[in-house]
From TrEMBL:
Gene3D superfamilies: Photosystem II 12 kDa extrinsic protein. This is Helix-hairpin-helix domain-containing protein. Residues 44-63, 74-93 form the Helix-hairpin-helix DNA-binding motif class domain. It comes from the Bacteria.
Amino acid sequence: MNSLQQLARSYVTIRLLAFVLCLSLPGLGLATEGKIDLNTASATQLEQLPGIGKEIAQRIISYRKDMGPFKSVEELTKVKGIGKAKLTKVKEHLTIGIATQSTSAK
């Protein structure tokens, strides 16, 4: 195998390992089934949700910072600018992380 083939193989291996690592880190806001973890998502990730812009994304983060982690997705309606209609649009895209669920169950 020549050095170019070795380099290509190493590149593919590194990219694959990076992908697996990203999927396994809950702090990145990534969750199972392609959902966003409401308690770890960044403003940029929250802005990807339907009807959520910069201002509401920042309100979500501020609420989370002031009040602690969300215990349920439905608690999102406590954030100014998010009513039942907007919750219905975003609910299917959100989850609450496993670590948060286990600590809130105590």
